[in-house]
Structures are given as structure tokens and as C-alpha cells.
Amino acid sequence: MNASTALTFLTFFYALKLIEPAIVGAVEIGVGPVLAVIITFALTGQKPSVQRIAVCAGVLAGCGVLALAAVKGSGFASIGENAWLGLLASLAAGIGAVLITLS
Q: Which helix (H) or strand (E) segment is 45 a member of?
């Protein structure tokens, strides 16, 4: 749990340095439901319902739009390599948050 907490907080605050806070928060939170469905399927073999798949697809589409905004540099978002690092750090923070929940 301590490693998951460290992963979450360090990568979250690193992402905040690189891209807009709204994008960081949305991507971090958006990863949770998608990972929950994937982990549930991997551990139990239970197939998700069509509604859950639709929700996950919508969340991923929203995260994709935000990632595009970060990479293109709209608003206060940075452009280029820093944007990609910020998105990866935000994704890592979301994964860490899911790991905290599981532990």
C-alpha cells in the first residue's frame, strides 16, 4: 500500500507541473472504472455488461479528447514532450489509485 500511495502522489504532482490540473484530474479519475472492469474480468472471468463497456468507451473517449488538448497545447496545456510525460504521469497516478483501492 505504501508503494501504491507513493506512486500515486508522486506521479500526480509531477503531472500537475507539466499539464493543466483539469486534464490531470480527469485522466487520473477516468482510469479507475476502466481498470476496474479489466481487473474484474482478468481475476474472475466475468464479462462486463454492454452498459459498462459503453461507459468505459465514453470515459476513454473523453480522456482521448483531453490528451489531444494537452498535446496540441490548447489553453494552458504545454506542447510536446512535456505534455506526453504529464499524461503518462497522470495515467500512472490513476493506476496507483486503483492499486490503493485493491490493497
A: none
pLDDT tens digits, 54-91: 999 999 899 888 888 877 776 555 566 688 898 899 99
d(CA 8, CA 29): 12
**Is residue 6 scored above 80 in pLDDT?**
yes
Cell numbers given for 28: 487520473
The string of DSSP letters for 59-96 reads: HHHHHHHHHHHHHHT-TT---THHHHHHHHHHHHHHHH
Distances (CA, A) of 63 to 44, 56, 68, 79: 27, 10, 9, 17
Residue 88, φ and ψ in degrees, nearest 5: -65, -40
Q: Are 27 and 91 in contact (CB under 8 A)?
A: yes
